[in-house]
Please model this.
Amino acid sequence: MGGRPSVTSSSSLEPTHPIGLDLSRRPPALHSRTDHGVAMNLSAYHHQSRDTWHSLVLVMPLFVIYQLGVLWSGGVRNGVDFMTDTLWWAAGGELSTYLAIHLGALVVMALAVWVLRKKRRLQLRVWPAVVAESAVYALFFGAAVVGIMDALGLSALLSIGLALGPEASVFQNLVLSIGAGLYEELVFRLLLMGGLLWVGRRALGWPGWWAALWAVVISSVIFSAVHHLGPLGDAFELGVFMYRVIAGALLALIFYLRGFAVAVYTHALYDVLVLVIL
Model:
């Protein structure tokens, strides 16, 4: 996605720090020396949790859990999951090789954590903090979407309700929730929205706020539309479509302001709340 995007505007949509797509700037260490020893620094946490490389490390547990969960879910997986078939093909259809690949992924994750900690650029306490922050967003996520729809005069559409898809077991819904958080944020936020941000800023030379607005709107509409495509897609209902557009926009803002990992965990935990707990 090209070089590091530049911040050219101070609009309310424009964060005062580099967006989550900045792959080159190193955030500060997550600790600072005080008279009481090493303490969590909120500003450093904000930087680290938004850094893309760190985000990729922080979501690796979800990747491994999901990829292994697919094996015991009867083949149920997320609609934009492009990795499972690829990994199964790479494993030659052998379960032992497939498991070995994921063991290797765990080793790579552990190595990445060790390197980042060695450079004093990451502390493991970031992960539970990211999960906790995301859980708060997830708890209020549905209410926020409904509130926005009501403010836009779309409350009449809410009576339609959201289609939850075919009957599935609790375990299958758990796997689907994790897969949705991981792969949909990867495809629609990190890749699609990130690409649109790059095009708006670098290729078209737009101000940061305009590039962000265009990226949020386009990626959110596509995110919602994809859920209605294909034989397994939901039948089109305007209420469902608009709910997902607004949900996609909120996730896009979380991604833009708080980074990839927080968006992934917020999405996954919200789906767990809706599909598994409620």
